[in-house]
Design goal:
The chain is α+β, with helices and mostly antiparallel strands. It has a single domain, classed as tRNA-splicing ligase RtcB (Alpha-Beta Complex), CATH 3.90.1860.10. Helices cover 32% and strands 25% of the residues. It is built from 12 helices and 17 strands. Strands 10-6-8-7-17-15-14 form a 7-stranded antiparallel β-sheet. The chain has a 6-stranded mixed β-sheet with strand order 1-2-3-4-12-11. Strands 5-9 form a two-stranded antiparallel sheet. Strand 3 and strand 4 form a beta hairpin. It is globular, with a radius of gyration of 21 Å.
Length: 413
C-alpha cells in the first residue's frame, strides 16, 4: 500500500482530508488518474481517505477503481452511469470433458437466448422474467420513481418509461459486458456474467448527475470538476436520488440472475442433459453506493469499479476476454473500507485500442477461445487491459484467491 496526498498533485483546492491509500505496487497507473483521484480526496465531505485499487484508470468525475467514503453527501457521477453494474458466477457439477467440442454452436445458442448489444430488448419478455419483474417490486418501485421525478420524462426525451425498464430486463448490453463459460484448474465448468442496470439505470444516473450540477450552480459552490457535483444528505433531491439508486442496484442484480439462469437453461437444452450446480450464485455489484459502518461510523461508501471484500465474502474479479478470471474471498482489511478491485482495468482507451490493434492481433490474443474475432470487439482486445495477475498480486492483503478460471466461450455485447 502507498499513501499519497492531494497536494502532491496540486489538488488541495478544498478542506477535505486529501489522503489517498493506493494498492498499485508494480501496476501501471496513468498520472492523470492520480490527479483525478486527488481532486476527489480533497472534497470536504470525504471520510478519512480515498482508496485506490490496482485496476484504477480515468473515469467520469472519479477514477474507475476507487473507493470513496463520504459523510452527509454523495457524488452521483462517482457512483457512475451504469448503477449496479457487476458480476455473477456459479460453479456447476459439469466437467470440461462433458462439454461438446462444438463451442461455436453453444455460443450461438446462448446468443439466441439472450438479447445482446446496444439497445437490446425483449419483444416478449419470458414468463419467468416477467413474474420476477412484478413480484420483486421492481415494477411498482419504478413507477413511483417516475411519479416523483417528472423532469425525467423531458430529460430523457421520453425514452425512460415503463416499457424500457420492462423490455431491457434480462438483456446483456454492450461494451465490456459479457457472458462466459469457464473452466477452473480442476476442470470444473463455471458460468460467469457481467452486466448492470441497462438503459433505465443509465437514464436515472444521467438525470441525477445533471440535477446535482444544477444544485451546485444554484448554491454558487465552486468545484474544480463539474462532474464532482454532489447531493447533500438532508435534501429532498437526495431522497429521490437514493430511491433511484437502490432501485437500479436491485434491477441490476436481478438482471444478472435472470440472464445466468437462461444461459444455464440454454446449455442444458443443447447438450440434452441436466446438471446440478456445485456452488451458490456469487452476485456482486462493482459500481454502487451503500451505507456501511467503518471505523465506528455509519458512512456512504461509493465503489466505482471496486467490490466489497468483507471477511469471507465471495467476490469475482474478471480479467480480459483472452486471459483468466478469479473467484476470491475477502480478508476484511479495514484500510480500503473492506474493498478490492473489480477487474483487470483498462490500460488504454477504447479509441486507442481500435487504432492500435488489428483483427489479426486480436485473433492471436484470443486463440483457443470461442468468441467474436472481428473489428467490432477490438476495443475489448486483451492488450487493452492491465495484467490481471499483477492486479491480483498488488492486493494480496485484501483478498484470498479461491479459484482461477479460464474462459472457453466468451459472448460480448
Amino acid at each position: 500500500m502507498q499513501i499519497l496526498y492531494s497536494k502532491d498533485f496540486k489538488a488541495d483546492w478544498n478542506d477535505g482530508p486529501g489522503i489517498i491509500k493506493a494498492w498499485i505496487d508494480n501496476v501501471p497507473v496513468e498520472n492523470d488518474a492520480l490527479k483525478q483521484t486527488a481532486r476527489v480526496a480533497a472534497l470536504p465531505f470525504v471520510y478519512k481517505w480515498v482508496s485506490l485499487m490496482p485496476d484504477v484508470h480515468l473515469g467520469l468525475g472519479a477514477t474507475i477503481g476507487s473507493v470513496i467514503p463520504t459523510k452527509k453527501a454523495v457524488v452521483p457521477a462517482a457512483v457512475g452511469v451504469d448503477i449496479g453494474c457487476g458480476m455473477i458466477a456459479v460453479k456447476t457439477k459439469l466437467s470440461f470433458n462433458e462439454i461438446p467440442k462444438n463451442l461455436h454452436d453453444i455460443r450461438l445458442g446462448i446468443e439466441r437466448e439472450i438479447p445482446i448489444g446496444v439497445g437490446a430488448k425483449y419483444k416478449n419478455l419470458p414468463e419467468k422474467s416477467r413474474h420476477l419483474f412484478l413480484e420483486t417490486g421492481l415494477s411498482n418501485e419504478f413507477m413511483e420513481i417516475l411519479d416523483k421525478n417528472p423532469g425525467l420524462k423531458s430529460e430523457s426525451k421520453g425514452k425512460l418509461n415503463y416499457e424500457l425498464a420492462y423490455s431491457e430486463f434480462g438483456t446483456l448490453g454492450a461494451g465490456n459486458h459479457f457472458i462466459e463459460i469457464c473452466v477452473d484448474t480442476e476442470k470444473n465448468i463455471w458460468f460467469m456474467l457481467h452486466s448492470g442496470s441497462r438503459g433505465p439505470g443509465n437514464h436515472l444516473a444521467s438525470y441525477f448527475i445533471k440535477e446535482a450540477k444544477h444544485e451546485i450552480e444554484k448554491k454558487n459552490i465552486k468545484i474544480p470538476d463539474k462532474d464532482l457535483a454532489y447531493i447533500e444528505e438532508e435534501t429532498e433531491l437526495f431522497q429521490r436520488y437514493w430511491k433511484a439508486v437502490k432501485w437500479s442496484q436491485k434491477y441490476a442484480a436481478y438482471n444478472r440472475q435472470i440472464m445466468l439462469d437462461r444461459t444455464l437453461e440454454s446449455l442444458r437444452r443443447q447438450i440434452k442433459k441436466d446438471f446440478n450446480l456445485e456452488s451458490e450464485f456469487i452476485n456482486c455489484h462493482h459500481n454502487y453506493v451503500e451505507i456501511e459502518n467503518h471505523f465506528g461510523e455509519d458512512i456512504y461508501v461509493t465503489r466505482k469499479g471496486a467490490i466489497s471484500a468483507k471477511k469471507d465474502e465471495w467476490g469475482i474479479i474478471p480479467g480480459s476476454m483472452g486471459t483468466k478470471s478469479y473467484i476470491v474471498k475477502g480478508l476484511g482489511n479495514p484500510e480500503p473500507f473492506t474493498s478490492s478491485s473489480h477487474g483487470a482495468g483498462r490500460i488504454m482507451s477504447r479509441k486507442e485500442a481500435v487504432r492500435r490493434f488489428t483483427v489479426e492481433d486480436h485473433e492471436k490474443a484470443v486463440k483457443g477461445i470461442e468468441c467474436r474475432k472481428d473489428k467490432g470487439v477490438l476495443d475489448e482486445t486483451p492488450a487493452a487491459y492491465k495484467s490481471i495477475d499483477l492486479v491480483i498480486s498488488a492486493q494480496k492483503d485484501l483478498l484470498e484467491v479461491k479459484h482461477e478460471l479460464k474462459q472457453i466461450v466468451c459472448i460480448k455485447g
